[in-house]
Specification:
Keywords: Amino-acid biosynthesis, Aminotransferase, Cytoplasm, Histidine biosynthesis, Hydrolase, Lyase, Pyridoxal phosphate, Transferase. GO terms for molecular function: histidinol-phosphate transaminase activity; hydrolase activity; imidazoleglycerol-phosphate dehydratase activity; pyridoxal phosphate binding. Homodimer. It catalyses: L-histidinol phosphate + 2-oxoglutarate = 3-(imidazol-4-yl)-2-oxopropyl phosphate + L-glutamate; D-erythro-1-(imidazol-4-yl)glycerol 3-phosphate = 3-(imidazol-4-yl)-2-oxopropyl phosphate + H2O. With 545 residues, the chain is α/β, with parallel strands linked by helices. It has three domains: 208 residues, 3-Layer(aba) Sandwich (Aspartate Aminotransferase, domain 2), CATH 3.40.640; 84 residues, Aspartate Aminotransferase, domain 1, CATH 3.90.1150; 174 residues, Imidazole glycerol phosphate dehydratase, domain 1 (Ribosomal Protein S5, domain 2, 2-Layer Sandwich). 35% of the residues lie in helices and 21% in strands. The chain is built from 16 helices and 22 strands. Strands 1-7-6-5-4-2-3 form a seven-stranded mixed sheet, sandwiched between helices.
Length: 545
């Protein structure tokens, strides 16, 4: 008998197999699910008149790859909250079984246990809000414990739980399912335990797409465990736990072309978290501040006064007096949102520019995700599928002095045209969005000689698109990039950026000529987008660009 069978509620084990209609199968007539056969009157959505896959196979496989586990060891749930509820309903009998928690922690553990009629046994973090494995074991040892929830990093305190402590607790409590909730794991230095759920038979790991991947509204998460535990969760899971639009959103956001932008966003949030940690840690009235996940946990001297200031500034945080005296959990927001928070604490700094943009552009031929920051030189990570084009775009960003993270999945098996064109459109759109109202910029730019080649790019960020390309190439392609597309790139960029772009190139070596055009574009953009220290002056006598 497996551990899951020994621990599960007998009535759950006695349940018959679930009998529901599966996902639609192409080429068949579906008359088995009592659905409305007509498509919904909601545009832009998948076929939501049909029931979705009870356990979406493609998403399950993608999430298994994301977390490095076998698909049969993962069960997709409506956020990790749903996984918590399924575990408690599957293993805890009302009035008989117990659930362990380490307070202060995520309130859903105890809430769902009490709804099920299970007892709650609580250990506590230390007075310094540190995790003490020995104290946890001492508190849990006398109990007939079915589940022990360990949130790592902990919500709301940010306390990490060493994976070695989780392993030790799991070994010491072999008849208890030890649940490591890694909802905030992507923001932690601790390695994930997901790959060990299964090899350690009583370990369950919870993950979610709500935090690091921005899908809180879609409600997508999962439980990772030994397949026998996953089979038990399947018995208590709702027939169709995830709506079709949520499945589609999850698959889209986890597309390979999106992952570099996710990594860059996480890095930005961590940098902002560290900035807040440093500034708030030295603020009068803040006794202590701890960073964890995508949030901070503060202990303040006058929480009522702070609540009034934050309310006046229309800033919402979570006050957690039961976690610690004056406890406040603050989510890390955008740079502008974080600056508003600091201002509520009486901290100000010279308003820096935040000229960023993120673009997602999907067509039938290409899927593009792009992030640009005109005021940072790094990171630069470009994956267009055409290595030479990657190099050219990197030249534009490097010589332009801005950060560019770009990935494209395109129909290169047909030809490079769609990828090359759509990337240029996305880049121009992102530049336009990042420039905002263009106040304080140089507006005009131009450049440069390269060996025997002379490449000149004149640019005017006028808001009026126009492109002219003077030059020719003897070769059909350079490094896999068709030379006939080079003028097209500049025209697509000019159209989407809303700029006048004039290019003139001559020389003997086509490689140098192509590279010279892109380097010159970078130098021209560097001058044109540069802030000239004139405050909010608009470089136009018309008063608008």
């Amino acid at each position: 008998m497996s551990l899951a069978e020994r621990l599960a509620r007998p009535e759950i084990l006695a349940l018959p197999a679930v009998d529901i209609a599966g996902a639609p199968v192409a080429g068949t007539i579906r008359l088995d699910a009592n659905e409305n056969p007509f498509e919904s009157l909601v545009s832009g959505q998948p076929a939501i008149n049909r029931y979705p896959d009870p356990q979406p196979a493609q998403l399950r496989q993608r999430m298994a790859g994301l977390y490095g586990v076998p698909a049969e060891s993962l069960w997709v749930t409506r956020g990790s909250d749903d996984a918590i509820d399924l575990l408690i309903r599957g293993f805890c009998r009302a009035g008989v079984d117990s659930v362990g928690i380490v307070e202060p922690t995520f309130s859903a553990y105890a809430q769902f246990a009490r709804v099920q009629g299970a007892a709650v046994i609580a250990a506590r973090l230390t007075s310094d809000l540190e995790f003490d494995a020995d104290a946890v074991l001492a508190a849990m040892a006398p109990a007939a414990l079915k589940l022990l929830f360990l949130c790592t990093p902990n919500n709301p305190t940010g306390t990490p739980v060493d994976p070695a402590d989780v392993r030790r607790i799991a070994a010491a409590l072999p008849d208890t399912l030890v649940v490591a909730d890694e909802a905030y794991g992507e923001f932690s230095n601790c390695p994930s335990l997901a790959a060990e759920a299964g090899p350690i038979p009583n370990l369950v790991v919870l993950k979610t797409l709500s935090k690091a991947y921005g899908l809180a509204g879609a409600r997508v998460g999962c439980a990772v465990a030994d397949p026998s535990i996953i089979d038990l969760l399947a018995r208590v899971s709702p027939p169709y736990p995830l709506p079709g639009p949520s499945i589609a959103a999850a698959l889209a956001t986890l597309g390979p072309e999106r992952m570099p932008v996710h990594a860059e966003r996480i890095a930005r949030l961590l940098a902002e978290r560290d900035r807040l940690l440093g500034q708030l840690g030295d603020t009068e009235g803040v006794r202590r501040v701890r960073a964890g996940g995508n949030f901070l946990f503060l202990e303040v001297e006058r929480p009522e006064e702070l609540a009034q200031r934050l309310a006046a500034a229309a800033i919402r945080v979570r006050f957690r007096a039961k976690a610690a005296p004056g406890g406040v959990r603050v989510t890390v927001g955008t740079e502008a949102e974080n600056q508003a928070l600091l201002a509520a604490f009486g901290l100000t700094r010279e308003a820096g520019s935040s000229r960023r943009a993120e673009i997602v552009r999907d067509t039938n031929e290409t899927r593009i995700a792009l992030a640009i920051d005109l005021d940072r030189a790094e990171p630069r990570r470009i994956a267009s599928g055409i290595p030479f084009y990657d190099h050219m775009l990197d030249q534009v960003a490097a010589h332009g002095g801005f950060s560019l993270v770009l990935a494209c999945e395109g129909d290169l098996t047909i030809d490079p045209h769609h990828s090359v064109e759509d990337i240029a459109i996305a880049l121009g759109t992102a530049l336009k969005q990042a420039l905002g109202d263009k106040r304080g910029i140089g507006r005009f730019g131009f450049a440069l000689p390269m060996d025997e080649t002379r490449a000149e790019v004149l640019i005017d960020l006028s808001g009026r698109p126009f492109a002219r390309f003077e030059g020719s190439f003897a070769s059909a392609a350079v490094g896999g990039l068709p030379t006939e597309l080079v003028p097209h790139i500049f025209r697509s960029l000019a159209d989407s950026l809303g700029a006048a772009v004039h290019v003139r190139v001559d020389g003997e070596n086509d490689h140098h000529k192509v590279e010279g055009c892109f380097k010159a574009l970078g130098r021209a953009l560097r001058t044109a987008v540069a802030l000239e220290g004139r405050g909010d002056a608009l470089p136009s006598t018309k008063g608008v660009l």
